Amino acid sequence: xxxxxxxxxxxxxxxxxxxxxxxxxxxxxxxxxxxxxxxxxxxxxxxxxxxxxxxxxxxxxxxxxxxxxxxxxxxxxxxxxxxxxxxxxxxxxxxxxxxxxxxxxxxxxxxxxxxxxxxxxxxxxxxxxxxxxxxxxxxxxxxxxxxxxxxxxxxxxxxxxxxxxxxxxxxxxxxxxxxxxxxxxxxxxxxxxxxxxxxxxxxxxxxxxxxxxxxxxxxxxxxxxxxxxxxxxxxxxxxxxxxxxxxxxxxxxxxxxxxxxxxxxxxxxxxxxxxxxxxxxxxxxxxxxxxxxxxxxxxxxxxxxxxxxxxxxxxxxxxxxxxxxxxxxxxxxxxxxxxxxxxx
Length: 344
Ligand SMILES: [Zn+2]
Hints:
The protein is α/β, with parallel strands linked by helices. Helix content is 47%, strand content 12%. It has helices spanning 6-19, 31-44, 54-60, 68-83, 106-118, 137-153, 186-196, 227-239, 258-266, 276-292, 294-297, 307-310, 312-333, and strands spanning 23-27, 48-52, 90-94, 127-130, 157-162, 166-167, 204-208, 213-214, 248-250, 269-274. It has an 8-stranded parallel barrel with strand order 1-2-3-4-5-7-9-10, surrounded by 9 helices. The chain is globular, with a radius of gyration of 20 Å. The N and C termini lie close together (9 Å). Residues 96, 165, 169, 172, 214, 251-252, 273 line the site of zinc ion (ZN). Zinc ion (ZN) binds at residues 96, 165, 169, 172, 214, 251-252, 273.
């Protein structure tokens, strides 16, 4: 099926919230990793989201070019074509974009969508993230409101972040933040709703933070407080109405306990970003190939090696398969297996 259109994407998110599951949103940096996600989603009979970070997209454009908008467009165009061959829906999203890179990432991507729409073509992306979490909340929302208006005009969903996710990720604020900032307060969430709900009919996603950290941690080392999300949702519904209930995004979930992930879903998380776990699954298969075939991939002592083993396809195919398996696990962790909206 082609990439989800706006109506389908909205339906996906509504259904996840109703049925208490979430869509994994996988970071990809290449055709191989994008294909791994499509394979894993389709084998799970689940819809899902493919996203690109600024660094991942710059990488995809080639090391001589390093143009993040170009790299994101290239991968998105591939996904539009390849997704036609799968019996699931996939949405395309861009990950963390801080205020200082809006003009070189999200804005040119919105312009690309505007250009396509003017020519009667479908949108290239379904949603974009603006990460203003490093700014004071007022400045964050002062940028987010007009951006949401522009997104809404183009059938794009905007993801924003309030509060700071700890840890390591390109473009994401990180280590050294005051501990309290790891938790979004109910007051922050009310303020987000107050400002963003002025954009009539617009859809947005909120990455609220509840102790999550980017990067990989040993299970048990991440101290999540999903009740933060419940407190915020309750406060927002009380201050406004049930319509204000957020569509939440879970960043930095690697190393979280399954019960905590599922508790977060129960409080309205509909999208969970997955990067570290699939990175590892991809590389693990390559490590296995290289260590088992050392003499074949390295020309030891003037030997010739084994072309079948150093052809990049041999280990990249293994990496694709290994990543696809991890994709399936993420889908099942998020209670998504078998939930596709696609009807053949
Ligand atoms: Zn993140």
